Amino acid sequence: MSLKTTLEPEHSGILKFVSAVFYAGSSFLITVVNKTILTNFRFPSYLFLGIGQMLTTIVILYAAKKNNIVNLQDFDRSIFIKIFPLPLLYVGNHITGLASTKKLSLPMFTVLRKFTILMTMVMEASVLRKSFPRSLVLSVVTIVLGALVAASSDLAFDVEAYTFILLNDAFTAASGVYTKKKLGTEGLGKYGVLFYNAVLIVIPTLLVSAFTGDLEKAISFDDWLRASFVSCFLLSCFMGFVLMYSIVLCSHYNSALTTTVVGAIKNIAVAYIGMFVGGDYLFSWTNFLGLNICMSGGLVYAYLTFHPPSSHRAATNQLQPINVLVTQPSTDRLPIR
User: Fold this and answer.
1) Peptide bond before 85: cis, by omega within 30 degrees of 0?
2) What is the 8-class DSSP label of residue 310?
3) Helix or strand or coil: residue 277?
4) pTM
5) Which of 153, 197, 160, 267 has its CA nearest to residue 53?
6) How does 16-44 read in b/e, with b if 16+ C-beta sit within 10 Å?
7) Could you tell me if 71 and 191 are in contact, meaning their C-beta atoms sit under 8 angstroms apart?
8) For residue 187, what pLDDT is reported?
9) 61 — pLDDT class (breaks 50, 70, 90)
10) How high is the pLDDT of residue 303?
11) Of 277, 259, 280, residue with least CA distance to 108
12) How many alpha carbons lie under 13 Å from residue 261 in its C-beta half-sphere?
């Protein structure tokens, strides 16, 4: 007779890495595309752009459900309980993210986004009851210190822009932590989180856009007949879906904190490219020094996350499935009476 005890299997390293790279690439591309639409084309409504991304998500997932490509739970009252408060966090993340992208230069946008890491760590400790090693905490402090140094010499300081980006950090951290928590909710899954988030927030967002006059500004925009603008707008809508899917996928295979780390690594490329592309970066040595401190801390943070110390790996290796073989005593050698 054999008795076999197993632990819950972890996702493979390849899936973790691929999902992380997928998220980093998607986040990089949509940042550049949104910056082009809101800054270069001077599109007046970041809210309308977010609505386009939500509608694209709904259409793609609904079509996939109808063609039996993905499985989605049918809508019922339990959806509200299962998914709350993700819709509120997602719409806040969308609005503040697009607003800060429009009002900040790319390098400063990516520097101030580093505060998301600290906020995610705090929220994971409070919501998911996680603890972190001292080396990881020190790397986070380095990232935040670099961000403060860089922001202290921002020659284009804007109170409204900084308010939007810090709110965006808070919404992003909360969305990541609660997305990880809701992925384990029975009946939702990756696609359910994406689809019902978009369904529940698109109409309220559309109403807000209409009442504030934002919708009218978007419709009356002069460049709707320009093929270059329409192409960028449609690309942004599609990339909005891809980004949301990549975030959920990365959070599914990794932790919320790891997803935030990947975003920080992506920001290294965005920050340095933004010095040469976009034309809105105002150089100063203090800003440049803070940027490099911030990025150095991000690399150390990533190394500690994806390459934990040997003691941690040894502890992890001990948590392998244990095979226990129990045998009945042989009767061949029993004395004959």
Assistant:
1) yes
2) H
3) coil
4) 0.71
5) 197
6) beebbebbbebbbbbbbbbbbbbbebebe
7) yes
8) 65
9) very high
10) 77
11) 280
12) 27
